[in-house]
Amino acid sequence: MGLINRMAESIRSGIKNFLQITPASDKTITVTETSNHLTECFINRIWYWGNSRQLAELYKQIDTNKTMFWAAKSTKGLEIRKIHTGLPALICETLVNIVIADYNGTDVTSKNSTAYAERWEDIEKQNKLSDTVKQMLRDLCVVGDGAFKVSFDTAVSDVPIVEWYPAENIDFTYVRGRIREVKFYTDYTQKHRRYRFEETYGYGYIHYALYDDNGKEIDLHTVDALSWIDSKGVTFDESYMWAVPVLYGKSCHKGRGAGIIGIKTDAFDSLDEVWSQWMDALRACRTKQYVPGCLVPRNPETCQPISPNPFDNRFITVGNDMSENGNGNRIYTESPQIQHESYLSSYITALDLCLQGIISPSTLGIDTKKLDNADAQREKEKTTLYTRQNLVKITQNALQSLVEVVLNADGELNGKGIVEGLEVSVNFGEYANPSFESQVETVSKARQGGLMSVETSVDELYGDSKSEDWKAEEVQRIKEEQGIAGEEEKSELDDVDLTDTEEHDNNADDEENAENNAEKTESNPEQNDTQVNNE
Question: Over the stretch 273-287, which tens digit does the pLDDT of each residue have?
Fold first, then answer.
């Protein structure tokens, strides 16, 4: 047994040594970025502007893959026309318009006074806040983040001034994962020299600094436009700051937002390539005429043959028929065929890749080749609804913070202090509401079931599209037509309750009469005996 055990132990040791795994050593992977956050913001801006000449100039200068469509160079003499579809701007503008169209203003309420609501209404009107919010949404789609800046200038307005700064002109300072400072940058030019003005907005303070084109800090009063600034800055309550940062998405650059365009630049490049190739094929496949040399069109002034150019390429010169009768000197026409199905399939695939996760094709007006009802249309626009919901949520949070900051700053400047008990509500309507026909069907079923009054049904159908007076008159007309004018309207549920109540009351009356008779019997025993004897 000892020999067998020793042999088994030797086998186990051998297997153990044979299956021994040596772990991999740690490796350092270094990735060199070719662009910083500011450069990427500029690239996204060029894509949004949609100028093909600017795109071509951009990709000539930046360090990128030269096989990309906009970075590639054509062979001399074989140039093709590079066309930009304009899809990035179309996506951003459509999303912005969808959100802004449903914006119904901001309601400000306070337990102590209604003056804050009136003050905010005045501030919102003078600052044209709806336009500012629209620009905010546009910049969030393009560059990913930005910030509101609150300032005061009595020479311009007697209310707080609200300005929006996009991602290129701001920077954030984080402390333990929270934004503690927002730096706003403004460029000035004086005497052919450029300066950068930096405003640092923090909790309870504002600091100012001026830098020359070499990045060296200089005196603030070097620029005449900054003569009003006090070098000591501004101080106020430390519980808040006069800035509201807004971020959309997460960027590879820590602490910054990511726009919609930045993650789709390669897809947009592919779409432009497919469309440009399709148009180039369409130009190359124009009808060709094979013309003998003796029949080539000539310049009426010089009598020289007219040379075709790459644009029209209307005819191709062939040799003359030198036979005795010359019957071969004829013009032949040829029309090449274009592979439309192949180009269309490539275009649709590239387009779908550009729109995935952002917006539905039907939202952009792209025909889906079907006549859908309202429910099917809303199902197809789910992607748009998700993106819109994110933008609406960001807008609501930003405006709520902005209202509180503006009113607090205004209160401090006027000696009233911080506002207490303030409630802010940012109102947005619904997107892709049900059609009027489906609403009528739903309301009719509710009316027939006795679950909705005339007033509620009219309000549900017309909402804010009609005035209150018109809806009251409509309710009166409906009641008169149904013969219930002047009577209290009641539903089937009310009838059921009323019947049950009447039965309950009748039963209660019977029980009460029985009890009274019993009491009378007990109180007059002699009379009862007399009645029995008579019987």
Answer: 999 999 888 887 776
Between the two ends of the chain, the Cα-to-Cα distance in Å is 120
DSSP string, 487-522: S----HHHHHHHHHHHHHHHHHHHHHHHHHHHHHHH
Of 84, 87, 89, the residue nearest 138 (C-alpha): 89
Task: Please name which of 458, 476, 478 lies closest in space to residue 467, comparing C-alpha atoms.
Answer: 458
What's the CA gap between 476 and 129, in Å, rounded? 40
Nearest to 260 by CA among 87, 134, 35, 97: 87
Q: Mind listing the pLDDT tens digit for each residue in 440-473?
A: 888 888 888 777 888 888 887 776 556 677 888 8
Give the integer Cα–Cα distance in Å for 141 and 50.
Answer: 15
d(CA 19, CA 266): 46
Other Cβ atoms less than 10 A from the Cβ of 53: the count is 9
Distance CA 105, CA 38 (A): 33
Strand pairing report for 243-247 and 145-151? antiparallel
Q: What is the 3-state secondary structure (H, E, C) of 141-210?
A: HHCCEEEEEEECCCCCCCCCEEEEEEHHHEEEEEECCEEEEEEEEEEEEECCEEEEEEEEEECCEEEEEE
Model confidence, pTM: 0.73
Q: Are 258 and 248 in contact (CB under 8 A)?
A: yes
Closest Cα to residue 210, out of 193, 202, 147?
193
